[in-house]
Amino acid sequence: MDELLEDLPVKWERLGDLALLPEGCLVHPAWSSILPDLGGLWTVMAKALGVRRLAKQAKVANTGTRDSQAIMLLGSDGWVEHKEGGVTFCLDVTKCMFSSGNVTERMRIGKLKCSGETVVDLYTGIGYYTIPILACAGADKVYACEWNTNAVTALHRNLRANHIPPDRCVVLQGDCRLKAPQSVADRVLLGLLPSSQGGWQTAVLALKPTGGWLHVHENVLDKAEGEWVETAVQRIQSLTRAIQGRQHWVASVRHVEHVKWYAPHIRHIVVDMELRPSPSVSAVLPSTAEAQECTSSRWISTGAVSANDASFNGYLRGLHEDGSRTSVSKRGTSERTGAAAAEAVTGPESSYWFRSPLTELPRVKEVVVPSAESSIETHQLLWQWFDLQVSRQREPVLLKGLDLGPAVQKWTPEYLADLPSSSTTQVSVHVTHESSGCLDFVNKNFSFKNMTLKELVQAVNKADVSSKADSNSDQLGSHNRDSKPGGSAASASASQTAASQNTTCTKYYLRSVGVNPRKEPAHLHASFPDLAQDIQLPVSLLPPDMTLFSSVLRVGSPGLRLWTHYDVMDTVLMQIRGTKQVLLWPPSDYDNLYMEGSSSPIIGVLDPDLIKYRRYSSAKPVLCTLTPGTALFIPSLWLHNVFSEPGSGASISVNAFWRHLPVEFYEKKDLYGNRDLVQANQADEEVGKVCNLLKELPGHYRAFYAQRLITRLTQQLLKDT
């Protein structure tokens, strides 16, 4: 009996009304002697599992098409309809494979921002990734390669089930190495296991001349993951540079996704890799049409290239080592063009705000908070003053004269480390080893480490000693403080590189959380009672019936830069120790900072990649310098980036957040003040539904009705703002 119990399945996959049992179960010979007719067992088992049909997995067919050989136990038809992540998958489980373990990757692909993109899926199957990227991610068109006839049948069925018009998915049946198109893709999917290496060359050939993304799947040994990723980058870059016209392309890893454990110590990963022409080259690459115009003097290079050689290969041979090129203008005069890709795209480099000294940026408004001895003598009058003069203006303001309590004098590193509770209070700290000192929330270039408050203070103070020795080369940088406006991008970049090399690599950052971090916002008095008695929180600026939502202790290493983000609550940032430079952008710069949710992926705010983030140079920030004893009012939705100056000591500050709107506007589970408002989230969901509806239309109809909706939204929602 024990042997039979062990032979029962302990896990299974549910696909629609069918349960797919694992291969190794129900194989004991005693089953047939106990139950000559196993049909009764299957019926009971199906009822227990809440399904109508049962199937059992078998070894995958040893063919190039990897057909499923699952057998039906109950029911005669293997076709199922499975819904996940807003899409529908139809397949015959006896002929096609389906891995429930890949659900996170399918949903991740569906959340990519692919609006207007052309995608090539080299191993489409039934549409595991093709369907989500079309139905959810907004891709304009997919070339779907698949050589399994059964999978192609299911793919067509899935396109219909998800209301995807035929013109948005071109199904190419056959070997992807022979069928895949070239020079068309913004993005290529390589979802084949155990390895997709056989399709790498095909993938890079499929990318547009301007480059694009590869999503490379592989099963790797867990201990060798880093080495494998590095080797993959080198090989793909080598394959790319062997292609005519792509000798100067660069491959960069943007993200590594851990999908599932495939076997003990074998992990299924996906490497998101971006391939682009080197910035110094791409600034002057001709378009495809221009490259074909052999007689156009605009692209005639001197040197080794003849006037009739219009190929990218011939064109690139005319490049100088610094990425510029000599060309002959239509008037026949020789001129140097394209010193930097971004300059060719966005205009003269000297006009960029981040290439000039930061002191030339507009400063936030400064106000002196009235004291009790002035005409404002009561709490009632003070909060009314703040409401009228500061809060309602919806602009950041530097508050001087606000009483912060004795913390400004008392909170030295030694004082914090010597507090009795400092050795027992545990905190969760962001730790990064980035030489730039920049924390990247979008790509998570940090880890979390639990330590005591005393250990944190000592670690930050130790880093401060290192940074003081090199305080003249901090990240605000010699090019921002000392260089003249209009200095070259190369010299600015060199200054920043030197600065980052001269400061310690390990940076620490504490953003305190609640006592129960899953259910409570941070409160200084609850988590750090010894410190709470030293700080005067800005409750005097709020109406008597309003309380603070949270009070957050922040401790950071010198030279640390936080990611750019916004909050949905108003806040006052009170600086206790150290000096911070805060860049702030109005909400209207949301698109210029390429925001993903509430955070921006642009980490190098003073040295951005303008090929990738072209609109960034159009953003209009203001600057605030926070010194001990000053406070900054940051209105909700203002984007901000905070940098702790090296040489100014460990940065210690306290944030006070409050809800200035009725409580029902805020998400109940928002403990950090950065989740979008309830109505905004609901509107986002409705927009998603609208987009899915319009995607069913042909392209020119889709564009027409999308523009009409934009006009309607603008007229109805923005006319009074």
TrEMBL record:
PROSITE patterns, per database record: JMJC, SAM_MT_TRM5_TYW2
Biased composition (Low complexity): 488-498
Pathway it works in: tRNA modification; wybutosine-tRNA(Phe) biosynthesis
Keyword tags: Methyltransferase, S-adenosyl-L-methionine, Transferase, tRNA processing
Positions of region (Disordered): 322-342, 467-498
Enzyme class: transferase
Record's catalysed reaction(s): 4-demethylwyosine(37) in tRNA(Phe) + S-adenosyl-L-methionine = 4-demethyl-7-[(3S)-3-amino-3-carboxypropyl]wyosine(37) in tRNA(Phe) + S-methyl-5'-thioadenosine + H(+)
Keyword flag Transmembrane: no
Any one Gene Ontology BP term: tRNA methylation
Name of one Pfam family that matches: TRM5-TYW2_MTfase
Superkingdom of origin organism: Eukaryota
GO CC, one annotated term: cytoplasm
Compositionally biased tracts (Polar residues): 468-478
Record domain SAM-dependent methyltransferase TRM5/TYW2-type: where: 12-277
EC number: 2.5.1.114
Annotated GO MF terms: tRNA 4-demethylwyosine alpha-amino-alpha-carboxypropyltransferase activity; tRNA methyltransferase activity
Domain JmjC: 517-675
SUPFAM superfamilies: Clavaminate synthase-like, S-adenosyl-L-methionine-dependent methyltransferases
Keyword S-adenosyl-L-methionine in record: yes
UniProt-listed PANTHER family: TRNA METHYLTRANSFERASE, TRNA WYBUTOSINE-SYNTHESIZING PROTEIN 2 HOMOLOG
Family of this protein: Belongs to the JARID1 histone demethylase family.
Protein name, per record: tRNA(Phe) (4-demethylwyosine(37)-C(7)) aminocarboxypropyltransferase
Species, as recorded: Chlamydomonas eustigma
Lineage: Eukaryota, Viridiplantae, Chlorophyta, core chlorophytes, Chlorophyceae
